[in-house]
Amino acid sequence: MSDEATAVRADGPSVRASIAAMFRLTARHRSSMTVASVLTLGGSALGLAQPLVAKTIVDASAHGHITVPLLVLAALFVAEAVTGAVGRFVLERMGERVVRGLRSGLVSRLLRLEMREYDRHRTGDLISRVTTDTSLLREVVSQALVDLMTGSLIAVGAVALMLWIDPLLLFLVALTVVAAAVAVASLLTGLRTAAEHMQGAIGSIASELERALGALSMVRVHRAEEREAEHIGTCIDTAYSAGVRTARLASVLNPAVELAVHGSFLLVLVIGGLRVNENANTLGDLVAFMLYATYLVVPLSSVFRAVGLIQRGMGAFQRIDEALSLEAEPTEPKPSARPVPAVPARCSPRTAPDPAEPAPALALDDVWFGYRPGRPVLQGVSLTVPHRQQIALVGRSGAGKSTIFALIARFYEPDSGTLRFDGHPAAELGRQECRARIAVVDQNTHVVHGTLWDNLTYAVPTATPAEVHKVVELANLTDVVDRLPGGLTGTVGERGNTLSAGERQRVALARALLTRPSLLLLDEPTSHLDAINEAALGRVLQDVTRHCALLVIAHRLSTVQNADHIVLLEAGRALASGCHEDLLTTSAAYRELAAGQALRTRAQGTNGRGAMRLR
């Protein structure tokens, strides 16, 4: 994670703490900030010199010797413009770099969060912290901080010169500035609170829109477009209300500054004119003082607005800080490369497991787990998955089958008990090493926007065309390749919407086979397959077990009745285990499950979906 990301930690609600935190955010870019500040101050110093030259021109106009001062004034003006432009570019570039570091740190963090954090937070809201919130912070970093620092210094310089010219006029200007400062200070707390509410509401809009677009087909089939629009509209209204409140406070803040500016200018004009008439000052003094008064307007306005902008930015600051504080998986070294077998050939007989193998590919020993304390989903589950064998998990919905897969993938850690890969405790191997040994075909198949080749080689970007064509053949994807314009380089659309559910499932299977795992996890592998492809998958699985272990979740017993071993789960417990024929004889719960499957098959008639005969 970047240093900018680790620097974002809230110090409290005070303006001083907010400014200090923002300065820490730019810790790695102090050199750029220093250069930008020096250039800005240099340009301002050139600007501060101009009223003195103007005073000289006015006082010397009666004598006609003004050519050289006019040239000097023009040179100062051009130099100020060039210096200010370069300083602003350096500042804007620094702001972009800070935001780049923040976004990189946030993306890195969000991709590595513990799965429990995603159970508690909306995806769209987390995304908005990377986009919307960092954009607001960019404005704070690239403008407010340097404006606050240089504006304060320039104001001090202008005040010193005004004090030298006329202390009385300076006192009158100071009164109006103090009055404006009091008004601004009273608005800052409310401005920050309103900005926090607005950023939170924007995050809610992103979350709700992401939810609706992610299920767009369901929304349209149920004619829920208007209902979803109204629901998201509620979030939009909330953001609007917070934005209006922010605008109302900002609209009061800006006139307060402008009134102070205009009031001080009128006082200088009136009182200064009277003092010129009384010969207390020269006309040149009045011109110089008025120019300094106008020059003072810019830095004072920038200081007030910078403080207001920092307070508005603290809403985004807090949300980014919260995201960076979420618990992430521990950073681990990448697993060392290990030799893997070639992709299995089709139609080869299953090889018997080697009795000399010291440990199974996977073993669960008395595993307990719950997503919430005191509510276990798994209760003392023990099972083994030997090398080159197919083990099946069956049971009713909610029995804990998918939870076992989540534990094997190390998305969660058991509350008690042990997972072992090849005899090694999972905790000793580390998450990355455990995941390097497995591949998963989830029932919610993930196909991302891009080409078919991109999806197949997602885990193995260096795969050769021969390897890809082999898994395409194994997963019966040849017809999909032939149908897609461009074949393997054809685009599959957002979430693979140009493919059917069964085709997406076969893509996921081919992608998993390409990694050559030692343990392949299949979650409902035939849920979207027709009878022909289901039968073909059965042959593929027999071939795959020649080189890796298989753990399969299935509701269709026809998918797993030829498995080497079947484990029946019930309410988070391993209720029975054995081969299909043995369980039909020894387990009433399994017979009930099989009978229900048979009834559904007969009710489906001849549609060919998973027919099974009880034996």
Characterization of this structure:
- This protein has 615 residues and is of the alpha/beta class.
- It folds into three domains: 8-324, ABC transporter transmembrane region fold (Up-down Bundle), CATH 1.20.1560; 359-437 and 519-607, 3-Layer(aba) Sandwich (Rossmann fold), CATH 3.40.50.300; 447-516, P-loop containing nucleotide triphosphate hydrolases (Rossmann fold).
- The chain is 63% helix and 9% strand.
- Helix 2 crosses helix 10 (283-325) and helix 15 (465-474) crosses helix 17.
- The chain is elongated.
- It starts with a helix and ends in a 12-residue tail after the last helix.
- The model is unreliable at 1-13, 337-354 and 606-615 (pLDDT under 50).
- GO terms for molecular function: ABC-type oligopeptide transporter activity; ATP binding; ATP hydrolysis activity.
- Residues 35-312 form the ABC transmembrane type-1 domain.
- Residues 362-596 form the ABC transporter domain.
Question: What is the rounded distance between the termini?
Answer: 58 Å
How many domains, in number, for the residues? Answer: 3
Helix segment count?
A: 21
Residues in helices, as a percent range: 55-70%
InterPro entries: AAA+_ATPase, ABC1_TM_dom, ABC1_TM_sf, ABC_transporter-like_ATP-bd, ABC_transporter-like_CS, P-loop_NTPase, Type_1_exporter
Transmembrane segments: 32-54, 66-91, 144-165, 171-191, 252-274, 286-310
Protein name: ABC transporter
Keywords: ATP-binding, Cell membrane, Membrane, Nucleotide-binding, Transmembrane, Transmembrane helix, Transport
